[in-house]
Amino acid sequence: MSLKLNSSFNDSENCWEIELMGEIDINSKSVLKDELNQLNEKKQADFIFKCENLEYIDSTGLGVLISFYKNVKIGNHTVMFEKLKPSILKIFSLTGLDKIFSIR
Amino acid sequence: MSLKLNSSFNDSENCWEIELMGEIDINSKSVLKDELNQLNEKKQADFIFKCENLEYIDSTGLGVLISFYKNVKIGNHTVMFEKLKPSILKIFSLTGLDKIFSIR
Amino acid sequence: MNDVVNLSLPSKPEYVSVARLTASFVANKMGFDIEAIEDIKLAVGEACNNAVLHSGSHDTYNLEFIRNDLTLVIEIKDFGAGFNYNNYVEPKLEEPQENGLGLFIIKSLMDNVSIETGEGHGTKIIMSKIIE
Amino acid sequence: MNDVVNLSLPSKPEYVSVARLTASFVANKMGFDIEAIEDIKLAVGEACNNAVLHSGSHDTYNLEFIRNDLTLVIEIKDFGAGFNYNNYVEPKLEEPQENGLGLFIIKSLMDNVSIETGEGHGTKIIMSKIIE
Ligand SMILES: Nc1ncnc2c1ncn2[C@@H]1O[C@H](COP(=O)(O)OP(=O)(O)O)[C@@H](O)[C@H]1O
Ligand SMILES: Nc1ncnc2c1ncn2[C@@H]1O[C@H](COP(=O)(O)OP(=O)(O)O)[C@@H](O)[C@H]1O
């Protein structure tokens, strides 16, 4: 299974909402990277990732999120993850990402 | 994915209804074989297989169906398959099973 | 250069689905359509069934998936009893039998099939399919 | 006897998921619970990523899954550049970096991990997990 993305701008909350579906891995990470950079160029804002259907992420995918986080942080925006599966939450905790990202 | 079976006797139609889900292959065929023999011992009747969620069947699975058909035929009952997926219908045609089984 | 995936599996029924999964994956990546992917999956499954059921070897057998531009070549090789292919007879479809459908299915679904076998020498079946 | 599954894959990103699928399958058949299966899948994925990204070899790498009663042993071996493991430093988790998490994740998720590597000699990583 590969990665599917659904992005939209939420006007009332003034943030990007990105639904992540499938697997973020060595093969699909560039899809994510390109999408995030495009959105951020279009409009700088907070980012909310909806992760109900995110099945897998590896260190190359986490790397994309970390470098993106550093970009967004410069503009003082936040990056939020919603509904992470237990197995993925575990990796966020293990690698300390639960400390830099907001998770709910 | 392995094989799941749901069997029930339909009193009004006087037939066994068996839902086949997943894959009938070299590894799961004995599950099917045992179930069919048990049902047939319990009560001889027509058999209807509901195949909407049958994803795969190989020649070992077809073999189980053929030998079961011969059993059931002795008692003059019919064996019917419903909602076969195109890929499985193709194998039924290829091997001539569409001639001995009722398909709808 | 061609991409090659090699797989060696225990000669047991429960592992045959690993071969099918790998076949589906490679066929899908190459761009075969759904019908062709199902054909390839079944042909590989049948060849593995034969290696497990007939080779008489209780050890392992091998698969090689060779991705070749528009052609997928798959070799399935066991190290078992082999058989005399001259004695092989195609199934009579008017009189359905419990056995004897495997090789017929493989030959029907793949574009090209060749079998190297001999009593005591193991069996290698080479099958290929071309993207339309 | 132990069941062994062997897999050789092209050193390309798109095939890594075949390794993960195989790992999940074997772990599932052995009776690992869902959490452990996810751990194994990720650890295998990370080791494959390293073989693809760092080995510098553009050919193939190998995986061996050894099913051993209650222990699953997995060896991932490439034939590439190798590296000096003495220079390896664990990631500082307080200062998240884009790179350097792979080996840390593998060691955290598996029960036992050993690495044989040397500059110019390829890398072999052996990891195992025990069913609780
Ligand atoms: N890998 C193999 N090793 C030994 N004998 C084989 C092998 N594959 C096929 N055969 C022989 O060819 C026969 C026909 O095979 P097949 O058409 O697949 O039908 P089936 O497996 O149902 O018998 C088998 O019964 C067996 O005698
Ligand atoms: N299979 C390998 N071949 C060569 N070098 C490797 C291999 N695996 C790991 N390394 C080296 O170890 C370093 C740390 O690896 P890892 O912890 O997985 O993080 P990352 O892959 O993100 O750099 C790599 O940057 C690389 O220099």
UniProtKB/TrEMBL annotation, chains A, B:
Pfam family of the protein (one): STAS
SUPFAM superfamilies: SpoIIaa-like (SSF52091)
Residue span, STAS domain: 18-104
InterPro entries associated with the record: Anti-sigma_ant (IPR003658), STAS_dom (IPR002645), STAS_dom_sf (IPR036513)
Similarity comment: family membership: Belongs to the anti-sigma-factor antagonist family.
Protein name: Anti-sigma factor antagonist
Biological source species: Fusibacter paucivorans
Automatic annotation (TrEMBL), chains C, D:
Pfam family, one: HATPase_c_2
CDD domains: HATPase_RsbW-like (cd16936)
Name of the featured protein: ATP-binding protein
Residues in Histidine kinase/HSP90-like ATPase domain copies: 9-129
GO molecular function terms noted in the UniProt entry: ATP binding
SUPFAM superfamilies on file: ATPase domain of HSP90 chaperone/DNA topoisomerase II/histidine kinase (SSF55874)
Signal peptide (from-to): none
InterPro entries from the UniProt entry: Anti-sigma-factor_SerPK, HATPase_C_sf, HATPase_dom
Key words of the record: ATP-binding, Kinase, Nucleotide-binding, Serine/threonine-protein kinase, Transferase
